[in-house]
Prior knowledge:
Layout: E1 5-9, E2 15-19, E3 27-32, H1 36-48, E4 52-58, H2 62-69, H3 72-76, E5 80-82, H4 85-89, E6 96-99, H5 106-115, E7 119-123, H6 130-141, E8 148-151, H7 158-169, E9 176-186, H8 192-196, H9 203-207, H10 209-218, E10 224-232, E11 247-254, E12 258-268, E13 273-280, E14 283-287, E15 298-300, E16 303-305, H11 312-333, H12 341-360, E17 364-366, E18 372-374
Parallel strand pairs: 3-4, 3-6, 4-5, 6-7, 7-8, 9-12
Antiparallel strand pairs: 1-2, 9-13, 10-11, 10-17, 11-12, 13-14, 15-16, 17-18
InterPro entries: Gfo/Idh/MocA-like_OxRdtase_N, GFO_IDH_MocA-like_dom, NAD(P)-bd_dom_sf
Family: Belongs to the Gfo/Idh/MocA family.
Domain GFO/IDH/MocA-like oxidoreductase: 163-285
Amino acid sequence: MGYSSTKWASTDGTLRYYSLNMAPRRVNIGVVGLGRMGKRHVHTLVSRTPRANVVAVCTNLEHELEWARNNQDYKDFEIAIYDKYEDMLNHPGIEAVWVSTSTDVHAIQTKMGVQKGLHVMCEKPLSIHLEESQEVIDIADKHPHLKVMAAFSRRFDASYRDAAKKVLQERVIGKPYMIRAQTCDLLDTTGFFVRYATRNGGIFVDCAIHDIDLTLWYLDNPVPKACWATGTLQHHPELAESNDVDNAVGVVEYWGGKIAYYHCSRTQIHGHDVSTEVSGTEGKISVNLIPRANNVVVNDKRGMTHEVQEEYWQRFEYAFETEAREFIDSILTDGPVPVPLKTGQKVMEIARALQSALWSGEVSRWNEKGELIESGERKMNGAMNGHAK
């Protein structure tokens, strides 16, 4: 008597077969977008997420389609390849969608997935427009049986989770009141970031969004009170055409005496440099103040040196794996998603307020209910303030 089997790639790339009668249930997933992140999500889901089953991918870019058609893993796992998102949503047996496209289509593709009755994991942010992301939240609320989440990968990083445990549960630094965080990317000489800047919402929306999310986490969802920002153009003067900068600093004051300081950069020479400090009444916790590619240190006539990760993936690769597994678990167990959509909405509101302050030179303010009452939004279509030029 025969039996059916299914394939899964272990972390060493080995194909393994399991009897369908013995294997735990898996979630059939389609991934839309096969750019830098999309390809990595497919790899993570196929190689490191045992209860995920990638059944389809989709892109409308010919070079990505050609790459997918020639990819041996996609052939081995019989992954269907689509050039129309609507067609992928109709793939037989599909249960969930991973949205990994450009920011400007995140919201519409998430809404389409939910309206089709599918669970959706969307790359952050849902949208750079608050009204559009609210539409996604409203549609998700009408389908409570579906799991819909915007990805905030740092919440799934082992070091950041350990820091959160020490801050929020063990209270080792007393009452936390201040965050100093930075997201600084390696200088891009290919022109990618300049092209990307036309649709990413600006440096605070693109770079500081994770730092703002960590602030809400570590400071126990504080209510913003006011924010101000400034920036400069040092390597990419052409970003001025998009009302953006390549280096920026923002300060957010929260009600209750809490403060956050954010440094964003796209021009670091040494590599990807992300760090966070949480100050409390009885101490301070730091995460990744000295970025390292690994634990190798070279001792020579120059002194002691070590390498730094070139980009975010080397630093947060395993966080994306944990994120995928926990989202899949929320589907299989019908539990809550790890990061609620409304958290992402508040993060985006603060990021937009910082961007407004950068462009206008004005202070953005909230009342004690957390309602934005004053911002430089009205100037966002005009020229940037003198600090940013």
